[in-house]
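Q: Is it fine to ask for two folds in a single conversation?
A: Yes, each is treated on its own. Send the first.
Q: Here.
A: Result:
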Amino acid sequence: MVLKRDDLLEVAREFEQADRQLRRAQIRAAVRRAFLTSAAAEKQERKNRSISSIPDLQRERSSRSIKRPAERVANGPPAWGRLG
């Protein structure tokens, strides 16, 4: 079973409510496509950003010295801003 474009347009002309429903469905589909496209682009951007920052994170971690317990006590507790 196939619904041709001309037949659909004829139904839309004859039935105003069907035309409104079809138009609403078209708009909803377009908005959904735009939303999904935007989400996929943002996801790819985040993935690219995290991959490019891996060497920076590794350098940052390797530059931190591991403190012995006595040094940690002498320096006091870590500031909340530096946690996690």
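Q: Second one now.
A: Result:
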Amino acid sequence: MKDLSNRRQFITGAAALGAAAMLPSAQAHNHGEEKQQGDHGHGHHKHHKHGAVAIPKLTHTVFFWLKNPESTEDRDALIAGLKTLKDIETVRGIHIGVPASTEKRDVVDNSYQVSELLMFDDVEGQNAYQVHPIHQKFVEECSHLWRKVTVFDSIEV
């Protein structure tokens, strides 16, 4: 069981690092563009004094198993619903994905159909997300699509 826990921690951490590289402010920084200090718009992050992007400290990683795993219509409906979550003010970064065609290994679990990774500054931001009307509407409109959901929340140490 410990091995499974370590795998999950690794997967969550690796996903967070990959998502951080895709954040708009990280891309802007990599191209020499400046973002304002403390700009908390969607996908905008604080910069440290040396120009490094401050990666949000809390990741909310969710894996979805669909009731109809072969249905591209159901998958696309879930993805469309997930994309609405980017409009929640406390969401600092979002990555929505499907299993990658990577090498088959014992440590890789690609049995899910859709994943999401959301990034928050802190627990309070994630708590606000949970009760936000956009999130509530997503659950109401899309929960009939999945048979199982697994969530991994982690905070930077």
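Q: Anything structural to flag on that second result?
A: Two points. Strands lie at 58-66, 93-97, 114-120, 146-155. The chain has five helices and four strands.
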